[in-house]
Write a structure and sequence with these properties.
Length: 79
């Protein structure tokens, strides 16, 4: 992997981390719950990771659904 691809991949991961930190620190707009704010951050992170090709699309989608959404409280896996 050359340096350009490595930086492109790492930018997707960095954006995901920054988006989640920003979502937790910013004040909520009126009418929006914290879980909705996290869902928006996860959605934007998935788009950026797909554009940057950080991970394959399927892996990115499954990571968002089965790791980030339960960790942030957006989704409950025990149904």
């Amino acid at each position: 992997m050359n340096n350009s691809n490595f930086l492109k991949s790492m930018s997707g991961i960095l954006f995901t981390i920054l988006a989640l930190i920003t979502a937790s620190l910013l004040p909520l707009p009126s009418g929006v719950e914290r879980t909705g704010w996290y869902a928006l951050a996860i959605f934007l992170s998935a788009i950026v990771m797909w554009i940057c090709e950080t991970l394959p699309m399927a892996v990115t989608a499954l990571t968002m659904i089965f790791i980030l959404m339960p960790v942030t409280g957006v989704m409950n896996l025990s149904a």
